[in-house]
Amino acid sequence: MRPSRRKAAAALFAACLLALPLAALAQEPALVIADAETRDPPTQERLASISSAAQASGWDGMVAPLRSAALRAYGQDRFVAAGSWLNAYKWASLFSEPESRFIPMWINAVVSAGANYEGMQNTFTPTQKPIGSSMSPELQAWVFSNDAFSAEFFSNAKGVDYLPKVFSILDELYQRDPAKFGKYSSLALAIAVVYDVVPPPFWPHYQVSAESLPRAFPDPAVTYDRLTREDSAGRTYFPISRLKADELKFVVDTAAPASELDWSEGAITYPLDEFAQVYDMIKYRTDRATQESGMVWMGLPYTLQQILAQGGICVDQAYFATEAGKARGVPTLLFTGGGRDGRHAWFGFLDGERKWELDAGRYAEQRLVTGNALDPQTWTTISDHELQFLAERFRSLPSYAQSRVQEEFAEDFLNNADPKDAAVAARRAVNYEKRNVDAWEILIQANSRLGVDARTQEYVMREASLAFSPKYPDLMASYVNRICTSLRARGETSRADYEEKGLADRLKGDRSDLAITQASAILSRSIATQSVQDQIATYNAILGQFAHGSGTVFFDQIVTAFAEHLAQLGMKAQAREAVERARDALEIQEGTMFSVEVQKLLTRLQD
Residue 589's pLDDT band (boundaries 50, 70, 90)? Predict the structure, then answer.
């Protein structure tokens, strides 16, 4: 496989924001909620009356009273009630939020997350219209009074979700059959948060031309109707109504049209406990794998039928298997990654025990590092820890539900200029569930706004790193790196260097990819602060410490980056020497695609 590299447009969005004043988020309270009411969750009758009043006078008048009710319940330690009142407040706030407020915040979230890409809508003319108008009054009343759906919605919603479109998709599916929507609301939510923006050009993978596979989703109703039909007929491997949106989003993100998915059900007969074998149904095309020109599928339509008939390389095998799984209602992921001798693609799927099998087609002899997969909700790389969190399913535990309530109040306190209470609530959240990453982040932000000293912040970040060590090394490493940044900022450079090197050493075993990332940071700092000769010495030291058995990841992040840096300085001879030393250290075998990549780099570095 070729390396997957995505270039984000620096200025993708050109938002045409009308010069209109923001609508007030709260007017004179039109709703009175007694203290006695806040000791328990709001009844269905109470929620119905609030919704009815909102339809008559507007949701903005409901925001402040509902927030007050949630805070009073929280202050009485009535956390179940507080969570329900908080959900009602959050719906009212969303339903009344004007486009002129939402769209700029959404654009900022997308750009900050690196989730902007070619083809995404880039011009907006927001009005004072509330985004809740994208949802019918009937569905507004339904979601407002449905505590389970509310909890699922707010636990899955992200800043990069384009909520006007999310709401309109949900409404479209609700209007088709409200009773059916009640059964399949998690499926509808998954479709809404995936289909809210057009898919990117690098999905489902780079190695197929746009002519062979147009990047487009079907109408949301097509996916919804197909999966509910197959579920009702008993042809899905999981009861769709029992999967949650965070799993179903890996079912609805199909690149193949419904006709191909239907065909695959008849052509692929492996049961779920043998589904890994679908990967090997595709004959491996060695002729394509050994020629750079064969790395991209071009010409023929990229259909499941053609892939089975023609054969393909590993990425085609992985694509075929993931689409076949989605056809049967199985959450699947397509992975790409690098190993010692080259690049590879494989797939993961949710097995019959509701555990993620992430190594289907991932060959042990290739010594592959952790692979990359796309989150179809954000179109960014799904993190290692998020995959583990999905596999562990701890978010269904009561302790996590309690943690979530505390985290949500902590976020609300922080957003309303109350960092002291935010810090208290965030601390409670991590005490209930140490894997609540958002709560750790809120705690750190609250401390920052409170003006706590750097040492105290470092202590909190060290707590977080220990909470995620050793099971979640990517999270552990991120907090240690932030500690190192803080240490350098207050002059503790030697200690920061020591911690950073120690982290890289700890990661060398099972997570060589993270160790290489650490090494890359060390090399980048050397380039920024040291003489060229010292940079070369640092590079050579990294070769000796990390290169053996590292393969393509090391070549991409260390060797290519440093060689190109030297070339830009006019030192092409030294750049070629750096590549040659790496070729020896990496023990690259002649005749492999890896050796071809190395030779191409050396050719580019000729005078």
Answer: confident
Task: State yes or no: pLDDT of 25 exceeds 70.
Answer: no
DSSP for 206-234 reads: SSB-TTTS------HHHHHHHHHHHHHTT
Question: Per-residue DSSP letters for 248-277?
Answer: HHHHH---S-HHHHHHHHHH----GGGGGG
pLDDT of 20 over the 70 cut = no
Neighbours of 245 (CB within 10 A): 24
Q: How far apart are the first and last CA of the chain?
A: 29
The percentage of residues in the chain with a pLDDT greater than 90, rounded to a whole number, is 63
Cis peptide before 204 (omega within 30 of 0): yes
Amino acid identity at 48:
A
The pLDDT value recorded for residue 280 is 94
Cis link prior to 470 (omega < 30° from 0)?
A: yes
* Residue of 264, 257, 424, 402 lying closest to 330 (CA atoms): 264
Report the Cα 588 to chain-centroid distance in Å.
33
Amino acid at 329: G
Q: CA 446, CA 443: separation in Å to the nearest integer?
A: 5
In this prediction the pTM is: 0.84
Higher pLDDT, 3 or 336: 336
Between the alpha carbon of residue 42 and those of residues 61, 85, 371, the distances in Å are: 18, 7, 45
Structure tokens at 205: 């993978």
Using the 8-state DSSP alphabet, how is residue 589 labeled?
P
CA-CA distance, 245 to 191, in Å (whole number)? Answer: 8
- Helix H or strand E segment including 599: helix 593-604
Q: In the block, which residue shows the tokens 């924001």?
A: 17
- Give the pLDDT mean for 515-531: 86
Is the separation of the CB atoms in 562 and 520 below 8 Å? no
- Under DSSP, the state recorded for 201 is T
Tokens in use for 509?
Answer: 């075993």
What is the DSSP secondary-structure string of 278-304?
Answer: GGGGSPB-HHHHT-GGGSSB-SS---H
pLDDT over 60 at 581, yes or no: yes
Cβ burial 34-51 (10 Å sphere, 16+ → b, else e)? eeebbeebbeeeebeebb
Going from the C-alpha of 353 to that of each of 12, 272, 357, 361, the distances in angstroms are: 43, 10, 10, 20
